[in-house]
Write a structure and sequence with these properties.
80% helix; 128 residues; mainly alpha; 5 helices
Length: 128
């Protein structure tokens, strides 16, 4: 093959690989396995979910996605695992904010535990 033919072949190859149509087809091929593994589960319409329930549902969907992505696209699986950690942090923060012990001091908690223990001991002593 002469240099002129080689250059013409390279130019033709570049034009075909860089054309918008070829790029679009390649993108579709890359996205097909990703979209096939991502089947989002939507909550039933009309159902009011609390923020915690919604986050727990998102966490479950994320776990399902990771199972499929571990073998097909490890980089996306890693990103999805990071998203899971963030969801878990949000759930923990919401649960902590709504916990009844918020604002109760450690001394109050210890006093309540002592009173509960004394009550159990009194019941046990009365039964013996």
């Amino acid at each position: 093959m002469c240099n002129a033919c080689r250059d013409a072949k390279r130019e033709d190859s570049r034009e075909r690989s860089n054309s918008a149509e070829v790029r679009r087809e390649k993108q579709i091929q890359r996205e097909a396995p990703k979209s096939a593994s991502a089947d989002p589960v939507e909550p039933p319409s009309g159902e009011d979910l609390s923020q915690i329930e919604l986050l727990e549902e998102m966490l479950q969907q994320s776990r399902t996605l990771v199972k499929g992505l571990l073998s097909s696209d490890p980089a996306r699986a890693y990103l999805q695992l990071r998203e899971q950690r963030e969801i878990i942090r949000e759930i923990a923060a919401l649960k902590e904010a709504s916990s009844p012990t918020k604002g109760v001091t450690l001394a109050d908690q210890l006093a309540a535990a002592r009173a509960e223990r004394e009550k159990r001991e009194a019941v046990r002593a009365a039964g013996a």
